[in-house]
Amino acid sequence: MNAAPPDRADLPADDAPAASGRSTRDRAFGVVAAVAILLALFFLVRGGSDTGASGGVAAPPTLVIVSPTDGATVSGAFPVVFRSGGELRQTPAGWTLAGRYHLHAGVDETELMAGPRDVQPLGNGRYRWTVPALPAGGHRLVLRWAGPSHAPLRTGESEPVVITSR
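-> structure tokens emitted (166 positions)
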């Protein structure tokens, strides 16, 4: 048994079909869907995610820790000398490369971000980062790039260095 379609007079004003046969609600959903599609196309064309190279953006260069070397013992705040593969600049987002990637250090499970006075250029793509004192014991140190959201990138990460802090 089929129910008779509702009379147009029985529908609320915002659900009543317009002359085109579509209600105001249908048109609103259509506008929302169109905006979502335009945003998806924008991000697809723009490319880029926090995974390194994508959408035509070059992958960040690999960071190389020059010192301390694997097995070294450090005490107090200590310098980490590294090569960045490009020129770093101090910006509000931290020490950045090409305005897109910024520098992080991973110490065990902790992420560190260099402050304005923590990194000094040494020339020839080398920098010195004074890392704060670590608790006594063994630690795994790695340098990595992070994207705009501060998520660590998979590409460009240094080889880990195991150090002991006194």
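The mean pLDDT is 82.
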